[in-house]
Design goal:
Elements: H1 2-22, E1 25-34, H2 52-58, E2 81-84, E3 95-97, H3 102-122, E4 130-134, H4 138-151, E5 172-173, H5 187-197, H6 200-207, H7 210-220, H8 230-243, H9 254-271, H10 275-295, E6 306-311, H11 313-322, E7 337-344, E8 350-357, E9 364-367, E10 376-377, H12 378-385, H13 399-403, E11 421-423, E12 429-431, H14 437-455
Parallel strand pairs: 1-6, 4-5, 4-6
Antiparallel strand pairs: 1-7, 2-3, 7-8, 8-9, 8-10, 11-12
Family: Belongs to the histidine acid phosphatase family.
InterPro entries: His_Pase_clade-2, His_PPase_superfam, Histidine_acid_phosphatase
EC number: 3.1.3.2
Amino acid sequence: MRLCTIFLAFLLFRCDAHHRANDLKLELLQVIFRHGDRACNRVEIYKNDPYDEIHRKHGYGELTKEEPNDTGTNAGDNNILCSGDSSTADNFKTFTFCKSSVGFQREYQIGRVLRERYDAFLGDYHFDDVYGYSTDLRRTKTSLLLVLAGLYPSTNKTAWNDQLNWIPIPISYSKIKTNFLSAFQCPHLVDMQKEMIRTPEFRARLDEYKEFNEYLATEIGSDIAWKNYLQLLLYNNVRSTMSMGLPMPAWCDSTCYENLSKLSRILFDSLVGNSTMTKFMVGSTIDRLLDNIHESELEDSAKRKIYLYSAHDFNLVTFEEAHNFTEVPVIPDFGSAIVVEKLKDRRGRIYIRMLLWTGAEEQMLPLKIRDCSDPCLLDRYERLVEHIRFRDEYRCESAAAAAETRPKGLKVGAGILRDTDDLSAGGTRRRRRKFDADEQLAVLYAGRDLLEFKYGRECLDDLDYH
């Protein structure tokens, strides 16, 4: 009798779960995605980098876009070396020219996948349905435009040009100072991360790679001991080089690449080492997602169907770490995305469900929220993340106060640092080179260590830094 009772309860539970899963209505989509494959940005180029000129000609930090091309010496100026003599980047005599369109295509594919999966929900484009927001870098803004192009192809109702299967859709972005996807302008976070790296837990993790760091110092010709973000810069350098169709540099093999990825993950983990740091890194993003969900319940709201947020690796990896997701990549690859669904049952209860699009592997995987059902009741989820939501008492200092902790001349919120005049010892006026957007962001969280790594100590006086 007892066994029958247990079996009946089990059947009722399965039936209820099945009924609930089929009873849910999708009401809102929110997607945070990483930009597409790109060339190295300027701060990731190290001394004697054999591919510096190739990345420069393509455009530092720009998405890869050209199709594979011919073999030989007659290939166009925009092509890059795929195989052959890679001992020096300017040896352009005998090798295969090749560049993948993967950067553009990777982002376009995100839109295509979302369209295929949610076509019935999304319908044709209407300006109120979609909101796209990006960080203030060209690669993220370009990526957002590509996702939108894949998500909203031209239809009979929306077509405006017979020769162009594309709909112009506006996007939004803001500068680092006011962009909720950026957290590094906060001096508190920078200081806390440096302290976190010094804790016994993180020191033990880093000490496992002591010999590897010594090897890097020898090969790169720079003091590569664990300073701020240098291993991450090298990881990004190698990953971007591979995306460009170039062989790994001579100093790095598959084991080296794996070590760099693991060291980069340690860095990312140190950014969310406690709940206060997690507030700075992820709290604003969680707040934005929840605000959008609650706003969608208002009668006079715009009733948007989808929010798209074009971001970076640190946005995805810290979001995953804050939620204790398992079975996720060590580092989110180019074109990966987190999808957040808002669902509602017949009783009006709201749920959320999260999915991971893996990018290069092109898989859509479920993300299980710890200590919650799948899908997770919204009320339950809000209780689970309450301790890492961004509240006024945790906000950063004012811009004026924060500026005192930054290098002089570093104007947060400007797309790039401006050229500045400077008087040399002889009294003549010279121009200092301006930082690009990547350097501006990187200096905020890496400071002098990064500049010495990139330019060498002897060159610092020529930069608009101090």
